[in-house]
Amino acid sequence: MNNTIENGKSAAIVAYLTIIGTIIAYFMNNDTKNSFASFHIRQALGIHITYFVLGAFVSIFDSWMVSYSFWIFIIILWGYGLVTAIQGEQKEVPLLGAQFQKWFSTVN
């Protein structure tokens, strides 16, 4: 198990960098199908899609309170996911992590 984590750690960390990092991590993990990397790729993909969808919705409102709340929410999800990947843990991000695992279950 520990060897699996070490082998997938670089792809897991790269997945959180940007949406392009998630795509790169997907292709890095395409041959090996590391379960640790796949878990974090699904989490990162969910965070990035949430960012784009909620960002489009939040942009309708002209309120700094709504905008800052959105940014704080995304930064917390992103930071939590990145830190757990660095620590070698498979913890779902708060609120949406379980849904990300279900929705993107085909991402290996």
From TrEMBL:
Keywords: Membrane, Transmembrane, Transmembrane helix. It is found in: Membrane. It comes from Gillisia mitskevichiae. This is Chloroplast import component protein (Tic20). InterPro entries: MamF_MmsF (IPR019109). The keyword Membrane applies. It is a multi-pass membrane protein. The chain crosses the membrane at residues 12-29, 41-61, 67-86. It comes from the Bacteria.
